[in-house]
């Protein structure tokens, strides 16, 4: 986990097997498939937003929700909201 954060902050090298993929992701291509983004209202790591900061990254159907009572580990803390988001994406197809 520590290495993951170091790599994410460009303080450690990544796995060379994924170098080409990382290069493509750094270009931040548009997400064209249906998507739902979630912010936990009680996230102590990344404050929740209304999602407008993410909007430019999506060209396909997209919705954003703030989940009350959820923190940074939303799937574990609010599995029902996480499951509902998956079903919502499926319905967007």
From TrEMBL:
> Which InterPro entries does this UniProt record tie to the protein?
AB_hydrolase_fold
Q: What is this protein called?
A: AB hydrolase-1 domain-containing protein
Q: What is the lineage of its organism?
A: Bacteria, Bacillati, Actinomycetota, Actinomycetes, Kitasatosporales
């Amino acid at each position: 986990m520590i290495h993951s954060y170091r790599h994410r902050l460009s303080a450690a090298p990544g796995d060379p097997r994924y170098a080409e993929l990382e290069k493509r992701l750094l270009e931040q291509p548009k997400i064209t498939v249906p998507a739902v983004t979630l912010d936990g209202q009680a996230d102590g790591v990344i404050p929740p937003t209304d999602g407008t900061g993410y909007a430019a990254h999506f060209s396909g159907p997209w919705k954003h929700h703030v989940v009350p009572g959820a923190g940074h580990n939303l799937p574990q803390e609010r599995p029902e909201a996480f499951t509902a988001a998956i079903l919502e994406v499926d319905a967007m197809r």
